[in-house]
Here is the input.
Amino acid sequence: MIEPANSGAARISIVGIGTVSLIQMSREAEAALRAADELYVLHAQSLVLDYLREHFDPKAVDLSTAYAEDKARRETYHEVAGIVIAAATAGRHVAYVTSGHPLVLVTPSQLIMQAAKERSIPVEIVPGISSLDTVWADLGFDPGPEGAMMFEATTLLLRRYPLIPTVPLFLWQVNSVETSLYSTHKNRPERFSRLQQYLEQFYPADHVTRLVHSASFPFTRPEIADIPIGELGVLSEVATSQHILYIPPVERQRVADRELAAAVSSVAHLRTLIDME
Ligand SMILES: C[S@@+](CC[C@H](N)C(=O)[O-])C[C@H]1O[C@@H](n2cnc3c(N)ncnc32)[C@H](O)[C@@H]1O
Here is the structure.
């Protein structure tokens, strides 16, 4: 049974505080945290929790304790969302605080939004700087000229999305590929065989990927490791839960529409596209 929110004060702010610890927290995020009655925090860094307790809410709740070895991540996400929804349903303005962008691969945010909609609890989303943003900064990457594709690594293998080797590709969560269960144990090289085989259907084995870890503290540097597709077993040594695997294009996509290619720099063509009056 869906519990209706029992007070007009019920409200949820889903807040991303950015990738680099606390220094990417926007003014908008700060204002949302200040406005909230209670904070619920899912963040890997204890210093973030300490800071939020000191500056915003001394009772800020640490949600990271919901994770456990071998536990289904989905179960954890439902638990986390349930806690946030229960607090809001009691008539409070609660903020769910997470790293990066709060809607980029954050299942609890989706569950919270869905449950809040069912209970007519208003939700605001406060975007944060995602690790994709920081990875693009670390690589000096611009998605304009050649586009960009991205997939969550396990989803790529499950659905066998066709890849386009002329389009830059970013893979999330390579470290936890092939399972929906949470684990902190070291990976075996074989864990990455299926991913390697799938990529080899589209790319040569000697094509070099870049494993990127963006700095998650202001005093650390980004780390980038170059790994040929044929040697992805190396990921067992270097990939962590804070890496994105970038697969650069093998070559630039050729222009297919020569007529349009000539027209894009033509004033006469521009005149056909705009109203001059
Ligand atoms: C559950 S998702 C959450 C992403 C987060 N909401 C965001 O916007 O960055 C976690 C994934 O983000 C990526 N990630 C997180 N921190 C990173 C970092 N410092 N550098 C590179 N990738 C990172 C990894 O692919 C990791 O598996």
In short: The pocket of S-adenosylmethionine is lined by residues 19, 99-101, 104-106, 130-131, 135, 172-173, 212-214, 216, 241-244 (CB under 6 Å). The mean pLDDT is 95.
